[in-house]
Design brief:
By secondary structure, this protein is mainly α. Helix 1 runs antiparallel to helix 2 and helix 2 packs antiparallel against helix 4. The protein is elongated, with a radius of gyration of 16 Å. 29% of the residues are buried.
Amino acid sequence: PVAPTTASHEFRWRGLLRFAARRQGWPGQLMRRTVINRAYYAAFHTARQTLRDHGLASAEIRFHRQVREQYLTATKAPQASVDTWRSIADLGLWLQEERLRADYDGAARWSGQQCHEVVQSARMLVARVDALPAAPSR
């Protein structure tokens, strides 16, 4: 086996969203499940990275829950952006539920339109994260 190399920069999670967007109209459940999975992880890791930039994400194993709870409680959010933080949590939870069905429910089926909605929701979550105030300089 070949060991992964350590790059000088982190993986660019947003590339997964571009991957999903380019393939959202492809036919077949295999591709639709892949699109849903990739769109979720692009949105999730973008949201998580923003928390890390603000010093709010730990190395905790259950980091999906941790990210959702940080946005939901919005305890560190400036007052003006509390609603945005909570909307990120709500949208993230819906995306996670879709991703869990795509990954684990063999009977679930998605239409092309449903895939498009997942990708658009992931884009919306990323846009909301991008609109948050920048992390303070360290």
